[in-house]
Automatic annotation (TrEMBL):
Top-rank lineage group of the source organism: Bacteria
UniProt-listed Enzyme Commission number(s): 2.4.1.1
Residues with N6-(pyridoxal phosphate)lysine modification: 608
UniProt keyword terms in alphabetical order: Allosteric enzyme, Carbohydrate metabolism, Glycosyltransferase, Pyridoxal phosphate, Transferase
Domain DUF3417, first and last residues per copy: 13-121
Top EC class, one word: transferase
Source organism of the structure: Merismopedia glauca CCAP 1448/3
Cofactor(s) listed in the protein's UniProt record: pyridoxal 5'-phosphate
Record function comment: Phosphorylase is an important allosteric enzyme in carbohydrate metabolism. Enzymes from different sources differ in their regulatory mechanisms and in their natural substrates. However, all known phosphorylases share catalytic and structural properties.
Protein name: glycogen phosphorylase
Catalytic activity: [(1->4)-alpha-D-glucosyl](n) + phosphate = [(1->4)-alpha-D-glucosyl](n-1) + alpha-D-glucose 1-phosphate
GO biological process: carbohydrate metabolic process
Family to which this protein belongs: Belongs to the glycogen phosphorylase family.
One Gene Ontology MF term: pyridoxal phosphate binding
């Protein structure tokens, strides 16, 4: 039955309880423990059954209970404390203000396809979303002027349950936005704010919802409105759902719609951060606006847009990037080529890794890479992998100079550390621990935490996990109609005193969730050969709905748990989400990770575990490769990489290494107790994990790094570029055009070296070069000597560069350059010379991709 009218009924609160609404609608409650406790206190069962959704809870709670707490002085005082904490937080001074001039009118626009903020907003699928959510929380803590853009999915990511055979099934609960902590944005006249985006043959409208994340606002677009046709209503239906067409529809809405939304809301961003390439189309709309509204040419507009764009890539395999066939790309966004005055191939070249390959698809990653002035991977190793993967975009540039750097991921401490553990750190380290970096002396105080207190606290966390695991298993088994015997068994799984290994992540095959059970006999011995030294596993994670091999891994684990006597020691918790993750990373004893190096870009759940004091046990990949993996856990292997035809062998070697670590290290150290029952060696490792990993692998450090290395310089470039109605941008764009045209006529005529092939250490070698600069002036180029030791292939490695100085002209058009090199080590050394473009407003000498070697 279609209604003739619809209403949005909001909860009616007694006036004294109005502040609850204020608290409920700002996600700060997630890391303001007073507020969270308050909602739990209001109605414990509703808090749990609403998936920790205070807005839904306020709508469902009985008037009688509201009346009761409205007269409860203890409750009202608690509420006042929570509200004061929120209000103080919203107003307090900030790191940003201390580091940036107050007059700089900055705004950083952050784009991502998913956000994992709290359990009750299921608009994320995994690591990327949780990272983006943590980025917003930390940006709020630091007071950055950041505004975030995303999509509000009607169905969000799927909920997981398992059938009787252990095969993953998906359910898509429909999100009811009116009962979530999101606000609908309206215009001054009260009507919905709508934005409009062109799609082939039609326009699509979207409404705008706001999510308050502390001081940061996240705006999300929703196309499910009656003015759109049925297909378009479903554009924002499902996160990463549908086919390639759905994907391009979503990415147009995210990128182009996102830019229009910010404009409609009155934002004038100075810096744009693309978190993964899904939002890459935003550059098309920015260039269009700069051309049509500011009167810039295409190259000028592209210059301005690029100077202020930052791109973070999260994928270590090229198959992970969105690729759209050329025709499809033109069908959907080809009208931008007309606006820009570009031919089809010129336009497609913006997103082609090799523009000469006319059959190649349009890559969102290539588009983002080519139009950004700062690009980073998400761990040191991922930076190395990304430079190799995209080396082809910078022809002639040595691999280690490819302008892709890395900023290692982090996690939001106040969101992932168990409440009791936070209180312990607050007590012994002081409340600012969650934001302090590695250089802060506060971390020395970790050793002062009494062993006993740390251990008892951790044991409590483990018990909580066991209780939670039993409840969850029972609930899911009951939902699928399991037998009474199965239910009884589920009520007794796990043992709160036993060494607990945690493994939780997406079930992609490269993550090898079943590596630990490769040799089941040996595993069984480890699990329970010695009844005083037992081991148990808690496992969770979802497979992508279309990833059948991933689902098979889950089924293999479920089947293994059903083998004789296993159900007690190996448990698979269904429907992994932020809540399950938090209980696992605090309640397990060791965090296990077994990806095939180097396929884990960073990984963050291990960081969450480390922050709770857990040692990691992991393949040297992602973040763990750069951690102190000896002091704060155990490395599996030594960072070996294997070729595709050796994967079986790799599994064998690494599973054996894993078993050995269990047998020789993990189990013995855990069960080595002193007279007070404390595992002193284990506790020492826990303290090292806290002392060394907390200060670095957190989003406070990460977002400070984004701010100082990426946002501030891009903001400065924006300030420079826009002066005098974009005069510097126009200057730079026309300079680039000149350099690009002249470049192929630049020549190295001759290079004279002051000595023959034998020199002594510390001897100076003088080099004089004659260069043909064609139509360029000496100030347009940087001439460098490039020298270093030779590898067995005769290639220069670990080079150093020396800038050569121009010494005037030498008759007909050649310019003389000189420079000195001092050799400070012996052996076979090589020397060459190279020329790069130089301009004060370039973000990097490699921005044009031009380089000339002698
Ligand atoms: C932290 C987290 C992730 C990411 O974990 P990885 O170690 O990067 O796989 C995924 N999902 C949830 C719910 C998380 O909390």
């Amino acid at each position: 039955m279609q209604p003739i009218r619809t209403f949005n009924v909001s909860p009616s609160l007694p006036p004294q309880l109005e502040p609850l609404r204020h608290l409920a609608y700002n996600l700060h409650w997630d890391w303001n423990t007073e507020a969270k406790d308050l909602f739990r206190r209001l109605d414990r069962d509703l808090w749990e059954s609403s998936r920790h959704n205070p807005v839904l809870m306020l709508g469902l709670i009985s008037q009688a209970r509201l009346k009761e707490v409205a007269e409860d002085e203890g409750f009202l005082a608690h509420m006042e404390r929570a509200v004061r904490l929120l209000d103080d937080y919203l107003q307090e001074g900030s790191w940003y203000r201390r580091h940036r001039k107050p007059e700089s009118q900055e705004c950083y626009a952050y784009f991502c396809a998913e956000y994992g903020l709290v359990d009750c907003l299921p608009i994320y699928s995994g690591g990327l979303g949780v990272l983006a959510g943590d980025h917003l929380k930390a940006a709020s803590d630091l007071g950055l002027p950041l505004v975030a853009v995303g999509l509000l999915y009607q169905e969000g990511y799927f909920a997981q349950y398992l059938n009787a055979d252990g095969w993953q099934q998906e359910r898509y609960p429909v999100n009811d936005f009116y009962n979530m902590p999101v606000h609908l944005e309206r215009k001054a006249d009260g009507s919905e704010l709508l934005i409009e985006v062109e799609y082939p043959g039609r326009k699509v409208q979207a409404r705008v919802w706001r999510i308050d994340v502390g001081r940061v606002k996240l705006y999300v677009l929703d196309t499910n409105i009656p003015s759109n046709n049925a297909y378009d209503q479903d554009i924002t239906d499902e996160l990463y759902g549908g086919d390639l067409d759905t994907r391009i529809h979503q990415e147009i809405m995210l990128g182009i719609g996102g830019i229009r939304m910010l404009k409609a809301l009155g934002y004038k961003p100075t810096v744009y951060h693309l978190n993964e390439g899904h939002s890459g189309f935003l550059i098309l709309e920015r260039i269009r606006m700069l051309m049509q509204e500011e009167g810039l040419s295409f190259t000028e507009a592209k210059q301005v847009a690029q100077s202020t764009q930052i791109f973070t890539t999260h994928t270590p395999v090229s198959a992970g990037f969105d690729l759209f066939p050329a025709d499809k790309t033109m069908h959907f966004v080809g009208h931008y080529a007309n606006i820009y005055g570009l031919s089809r191939e010129e336009f497609l070249a913006l997103g082609r890794e090799n523009p000469g390959d006319l059959g190649s698809p349009f890559s969102m990653a290539a588009l983002a890479l080519k139009t950004s002035s700062f690009v980073n991977g998400v761990a040191k190793l991922h930076g190395v992998v990304s430079r190799a993967m995209f080396h082809g975009l910078w022809n002639g540039l040595p691999l280690d100079e490819v302008p892709i750097t890395s900023i290692t991921n982090g996690v939001h401490a106040r969101s992932c550390v168990a409440k009791s553990t936070q209180e312990l750190y607050d007590r012994y380290l002081g409340p600012s621990w969650s934001e302090k970096g590695p250089e802060d002396p506060l971390w020395d105080k970790v050793s002062a935490i009494p062993d006993e207190e740390l251990w008892r606290n951790h044991e409590r966390c483990r018990s909580e996990l066991v209780v939670f695991a039993r409840e969850r298993l029972v609930k899911y088994l009951r939902d699928r109609g399991a037998s009474a015997a199965e239910l009884a068994q589920a009520e007794e799984v796990l043992d709160p005193k036993v060494l607990t290994i945690g493994f939780a992540r997406r079930f992609a095959t490269y993550k090898r969730a079943t590596l630990f059970m490769r040799d089941k006999e040996r595993l069984e011995k480890i699990l329970k050969a010695n009844k005083h030294r037992r081991v148990q596993f808690v496992i969770a994670g979802k497979a992508h709905p279309k990833d059948l091999p991933g689902k098979e891994l889950i089924r293999d684990i479920i089947h293994f748990t059903r083998e004789e006597g296993m159900s007690h020691s190996v448990v698979f918790l269904p429907d992994y989400d932020i809540h399950v993750a938090r209980l696992m990373v605090s309640g397990c004893d060791v965090w296990l990770n077994t990806p095939r190096r180097p396929r884990e870009a960073s990984g963050t759940s291990g960081m969450k575990a480390a922050m709770n004091g857990l040692p990691n046990l992991s393949i040297l990949d992602g973040w763990w490769d750069e951690a102190d993996y000896v002091k704060t856990g155990w490395p599996i292997g030594h960072g070996e990489e294997y070729t595709e035809d050796n994967l079986e062998y790799q599994d064998e070697v690494e599973a054996n290494a894993l078993y050995e670590l269990f047998e020789q290290e993990v189990v013995p150290i855990f069960y080595d107790r002193d007279s007070e029952g404390l595992p002193r060696g284990w506790i020492a490792k826990m303290k090292d994990a806290i002392r060394l990993n907390c200060p670095f692998f957190n989003t406070a450090r990460m977002v400070r790094e984004y701010a100082t290395r990426a946002y501030f310089p891009a903001g400065d470039r924006n300030f420079v570029m826009t002066q005098g109605h974009y005069a510097p941008a126009k200057g730079l764009a026309s300079w680039k055009e000149k350099v690009s045209q002249q470049w192929y006529q630049v020549k190295v005529e001759s290079v004279d070296v002051s000595t023959d092939s034998h020199i002594k250490v510390n001897e100076t070698v003088s080099v004089k070069a004659r260069l043909q600069l064609a139509g360029l002036a000496p100030e347009d180029v940087q001439v460098e000597l490039y020298q270093g030791a030779l590898d067995p292939h005769g290639q220069i490695v670990n080079p150093t560069t020396v800038v050569m100085e121009p010494q005037g002209k030498d008759g007909n058009q050649t310019t003389i350059y000189t420079g000195d090199v001092v050799y400070d080590s012996s052996g076979l050394q090589g020397l060459t010379l190279r020329i790069l473009p130089k301009h004060e407003n370039l973000s990097s000498p490699h921005e044009l991709g031009l380089i000339l070697w002698a």
